[in-house]
Amino acid sequence: MAARKVIIDCDPGIDDAMALALAAGSPELEILGITTVAGNVGLDRTTANALRLREFLDMDEVPVVAGSPGPLSGDRPPREGRPHGVSGLGAVVLPEATRPPAAGHAAGFLVEAVRSRPGEVTLVALGPLTNIALALRAEPRLAEWARGLVLLGGSYTGRPAVPDFNMAADPEAAAVVFGAGWTVTAIGVDAAGRARAGHAVVEAMRATGRLGGELLVPCVEFPGRARGDDGPAVYDVCAVAHVIDPAVTVTVPAAVTVETSGDDSGPGARPAPGTTLADLRPRGPGNALVATGLDVDRFWELTLAAYRGLGRRLG
């Protein structure tokens, strides 16, 4: 079976780094490009991190293209310190990249890469959706040409009290993406939050050599990461795992809207901007497949197998 062509749009980011490692270690995927967006930290650092990760993960032929430094509606400060650290990669220290990003803007790269391969390219969005929205605004037919879009963001199994970071970072972009006329596969933080790196998982990561010692274990053990009794969640990794094996998640059709002008304070409050509102019994086909469950054992079996294979390659 031919490898599935993907472009990964991300804001590295601790769990973005772990998701890129899964993609790099998966022969089921052909990575056509990595595009970066401001999110966990500013665009300069998400791009620098993507460049470092490209070289560390032995993806030298994969172009890295920088995208938007802020949301559609204007500037916003990047998230600093917790939970991704000042650099964006927590305690991970990788050498400076030796090669620069490719010329151009991520939105243009997305359009041209998908236009030249209609029906073949799956977009995987792990951060704020600004680049995807800009690409759709520039060329609405992107939604027809793409094989699909898999994103990490939102919450679909109950009414969320607050929006997750990716949706809140650019609600207008999220609304554009869900309204583009395609079927979005959305892995929400409620489902992805079940993928937690407990002690046994961390020890398995540690056994992967340089990959584990220099990247994976420092990622999951960074003190800023929120963690329950079972360890920190590795949200973004779940979106890549779904592309490799859709049976990792349980998905159902839904009609999803994104709140862009709400105010969650005071009487008559509406959901905060970025909140995803999902009708799991839509009239008609809906605009999304949303994850309502995660097969945790299957997820870790797939992910750790890919990490072990990549670890052997990296030494």
TrEMBL record:
Keywords attached to this entry: Glycosidase, Hydrolase
Highest taxon listed in the record's lineage: Bacteria
Keyword Hydrolase: yes
Name by which UniProt lists this protein: Ribosylpyrimidine nucleosidase
InterPro entries per record: Inosine/uridine_hydrolase_dom, IUNH, Ribo_hydro-like
Gene: rihB2
Pfam family, one: IU_nuc_hydro
Any single biological process term in GO: purine nucleoside catabolic process
Gene3D superfamilies: Ribonucleoside hydrolase-like (3.90.245.10)
GO CC entries: cytosol
Region feature (Disordered): 67-88, 259-283
Inosine/uridine-preferring nucleoside hydrolase domain mapped to chain residues: 6-301
GO molecular function, one term: purine nucleosidase activity
SUPFAM superfamilies linked to this entry: Nucleoside hydrolase
